[in-house]
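Weekly sync notes, structure subgroup
Attendees: PM, AL, DS (notes)

Item 1: joint prediction request from the bench team. They want all two components modeled as one assembly rather than separately. Inputs as received:
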Amino acid sequence: MSNEKSCCCSASSCCSTKSITPYDKNDKWVTVEIYTPKGSVPVVSTNLHFKDIFGAWKVRWGIGRMNYKISPGLYAVGKPDHTSPVLVSANYKLTFDVLRKELSGLDCWILILDTKGINVWCAAGKGTFGTYELVNRISKTGLSEIVSHRKLVLPQLGAPGVSAHEVTKQTGFSVVYGPVRAKDIKAFLDSDFKATEEMRTVKFTMWDRLVLTPIELVAAAKFSLVVFGILFLLNLFAARPFGLADFIAYTGAVITGTIITPLLLPVIPGKAFAWKGWLMGLIWTFGFIWYSGWFAPESLLLAIGYLLVLPSFSAYLAMNFTGSSTYTSFSGVIKEMKIAVPLIAISLIVGIVLLLINSIWV
Amino acid sequence: MKHRYLKNVATLRLSAEKCIGCGRCAEVCPHGVFSVSEKKAQIKDKDRCMECGACAKNCPANAITVDSGVGCAAAVIMGWLTGSEPSCDCSSGEKCC
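Output from the run, pasted for the record:
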């Protein structure tokens, strides 16, 4: 790894010393540089440091998420030469870290596209992980003079943005789609670029869903600050001020929509996300109202108000999770929303009116 | 447990006439929607299609069409309210798919 003379050509004079990929010299994940006919390329570590792991945790919570990126360009792992495979990926640092930690012991090139710091799949959907950027990046890095073969390994989830035959037509490089998950890359390379059906299939495990929930919770929390602000003002002249019980009821509905429903997704009956969220929200709200004794005649207005507001809010939050899911079609989401959004809106409005009447006049 | 979403909504279409049987669609599909036999691709399970558009984009014979929209629910609602196309604009928004 530390051998800086691991040059592609024996005579040092043929190697250009200009740097193909700019990087921050303070970045711990770059270990050394490797020299190629087109210039030097940073060699990256396959170990994650505390800073990488902490960085991943931060973006999961939405901190600096839109600016967590590395320079696009060519990187090296191990001691690649002109015959080594080229893996293509996105310049979201989280994506890059997930990839490089699976490459220990390998000698390969990583071509990083400029996806504006977005992961491969989302960027492919938007087209930034796309044919145009790939073709451009191949020519900018001088890849065809660094490797002698003409094969690129793309992540399978990059396929919505890249037209493989178009890339071949424009650059001469053929495209092989690798596995969906980075952890399968070694097996894929070992089996002569063959991916099994299991490697080709996207999953959505409970863990996959769990890591996506903080960002949903953070977004809901920001909105909730506005709600709390309004309730605070209402409390100044309310006959029945909103208190701790109301806070718990509301927070429970938020957690139901943003965390519980995504986690239990496949076991909740039904298919539409809004329905699943509503059902879970109803169970929560009903349970909490019953526990608080709000079904008593004197607080029935409050109970009905919350039964209209809270499950609908959970339904809305759960419906938003379709954007994070890995299996919902856009046509399906539109169909679901055309039914769910009007119902949610009516239920919310009627419920809020009842709660206001209960709070201010009763 | 397998995830299933709404039935009979996917806009995926495959023209058997144009298909040259290269198998690229089966390679890129993240949900195993296609199978290839006797030099022709077939749609095995259309209800599993999530309309990502990978197959259509990579079909060298233009035999596949699918409407592949992107956008989270919040973006769709904004689109309805403002009369514009929903977009999941990750670069400017805080929240995104």
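Discussion: Chain A touches chain B through 54 residues (CB under 8 Å).
Action: AL to compare against the crosslinking data before next sync.
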